[in-house]
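Q: What would this chain look like folded?
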Amino acid sequence: MDGLLREQLDRFENAELALAARLLFGAEAKTSGATLTARRQAAAAAAQYEVHHFRKRIEPKVARLVAWQLRRDSEEFTARHATPPELHAASGPPVLPADVFAWEAAEHQHALAALWGAMYLLRAELLTVARLVSMEASAAETEAAAVTALWRHGLVLTAAARYRAAYGDVLLHAATDSSLKEVAAFAGWVPPITPAQELLLTEIADPVGGLADFTARLGAAAGGAALAAVWRRALCGHASGS
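A: My prediction, written as structure tokens:
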């Protein structure tokens, strides 16, 4: 545990407080073995804060950041993994032989790329929502990002459904026996929704259409507004802007 804590302190993600965090937890020679009072004084000086302000305002922030990094490390350690297809630099356009097996292999690569591409775009939007919530951005901004994430989640479900229909529920030629649903979850945590809501998203999330098209279809669909409200509440903490 001590080694893991020191590793996370060495990788502390707030550069301005990184030295203060190491001093506070005794990971620097200067404060190793010192009392909490001495460690706090050294950390406050390194961060250029008055000691009492540091104790009340900055120290809890440092503790939360360390706890978050430890929790994330634990989740990453225990999580199952699936590896996306490797990409290599190409010297020219792909040239396929006039062979049915080559065509089938290209079709499978297309389906696989579409699935992983949708997953990474969903991950990007989920991170955007988390960042905006952490920054205490306006309700309108966070909810708009949440709806974009819902659209991206629908596109993941659509890509997974198309892959499943053509190749089954497990990725072919992959070093994992996870189902498509488990693989899709690697994009990040999403609010739980019912099978009926998943089906609705699959039907209205058109890869060719954009966000505006999805939003219009969601608003017009039976249960669409309720789904959007549940999704926004789970991600943002509220169902609608004000």
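The mean pLDDT is 87.
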